[in-house]
Amino acid sequence: MAKRIDVKDLNIYYGKFHAVQDVTVAVPPRGVTAFIGPSGCGKSTVLRSLNRMHEVIPGARVEGQVLLDGEDVYANSVDPVAVRRTIGMVFQRPNPFPTMSIRDNVVAGLRLAGTKNKNELDEVCERSLRGANLWEEVKDRLNRPGGSLSGGQQQRLCIARAIAIQPDVLLMDEPCSALDPISTLAIEDLITELKQDFTIVIVTHNMQQAARVSDQTAFFNLPGVGQPGRLVEIDETSRIFSNPTEKATEDYISGRFG
């Protein structure tokens, strides 16, 4: 079931380095929120903080709140692994387990969680591959290695793997940056379909992509060298691209910097 995310007064640090300052964002369920902005502005850092993935970097910490339907994912009683099952992630480069079969790639998360019933695993595999628009292409070669697929197919396999554990939220960190235009279009079409069932947050450098796939867009910027990244504004995507409130947003979208 898709859930809402509310980020409140989020500050993110790596050791003494203040990476992101005072971010407050509301991400509604069953929609796509895009994070855009120049390199180094903190958009991927904020994305990874939503499911505590940034914590794998030594010295990383946050101040503020990330609420999933009102529950703070940073509460002391919350297990980060449980957070990552609820808030799935797809990375910039396709990262299937290359020697593991297509089928085993999809159900890896379920097996890790203790599911052993073959019929159940087969059902989840098919449902997830259908959900990722990949079933028809691979149904006759499920025992082939995941690494044997094309780049675009591998990324859809990673999406199938992410949705197999039925998360409430799907995070995507530049999921098309390593793909050709045809594969990119396939992923964009898939995002549009997936938002019927999931809350999706996507980081993208491609502003045309943000305009095509997202319902709301957040623009992040870096005020100056050595300063933390900040959220400049967030609004409906159509408004951000046609009539932004802040001049910095207009300058970035029009290509004056970034």
From TrEMBL:
Q: InterPro entries this protein is in?
A: AAA+_ATPase, ABC_transporter-like_ATP-bd, ABC_transporter-like_CS, P-loop_NTPase, PstB-like
Quick one: a GO biological-process term for this protein?
A: phosphate ion transmembrane transport
Q: Does the keyword Hydrolase apply?
A: yes
Q: How does it sit in the bilayer?
A: Peripheral membrane protein
Q: Supply the alphabetized keyword list.
A: ATP-binding, Cell membrane, Hydrolase, Membrane, Nucleotide-binding, Phosphate transport, Translocase, Transport
Task: Just give the chief location class.
Answer: membrane
Where found in the cell?
A: Cell inner membrane
Q: What class of enzyme is it?
A: hydrolase
EC number(s): the record gives 3.6.3.27
Report the GO terms under cellular component: plasma membrane
One function term, GO molecular function aspect: ATP binding
- Give the matching Pfam families: ABC_tran
What does the record give as the function of this protein? Part of the ABC transporter complex PstSACB involved in phosphate import. Responsible for energy coupling to the transport system.
Q: What is this protein called?
A: Phosphate import ATP-binding protein PstB 3
